[in-house]
Amino acid sequence: MAVIEITKDNFKAEVLQSDKPVLLDFWASWCMPCKMLSPVIEQLSEENSNIKFGKINVDEQPELAQNFNVMSIPMLVAFKDGKNIDTKVGVQSKDTILAMFN
Q1: pLDDT, averaged across the chain
Q2: Which stretches of the chain drop beneath a pLDDT of 50?
Q3: Is 34 a catalytic residue?
């Protein structure tokens, strides 16, 4: 499953109303750790069809970044049943990311 771009316009439908758990990756094009994490997110999205993966560019979506009090990126936020269940800041391993949903 491809990683989808999340904006303030599709956030409600893609995240809050999703029938699957959702992992959001807050990132920016100038962020080196974000670039390190990106292939991990891509790989996880291909290996885990039961989870929806979304990316939020903090420069293009400042309103969403502010709503989640993003202070450092990359920041990962896990959602289940429309609720924020876990947050991690920094580059994370595949196992750590998947454990956010357990």
Answers
A1: 97
A2: none
A3: yes
12, HSE (Cβ side, Cα atoms, 13 Å): 1
Q: Which residue has the tokens 């039961």?
A: 50
Count of structural domains within the chain? 1
We report the CATH number of the domain holding residue 51 as 3.40.30.10
Out of 1, 4, 28, 31, which one is annotated catalytic? 31
- pTM, 2 dp: 0.96
Looking at residue 40, its pLDDT comes to 97
Catalytic residue list contains 31: yes
Among the options 34, 70, 97, 100, which is catalytic? 34
DSSP state of 2: P
Please name the residue ranges forming H helices in 19-93.
32-47, 62-67
- Number of H helices and E strands in the chain, helices first, is 4, 5
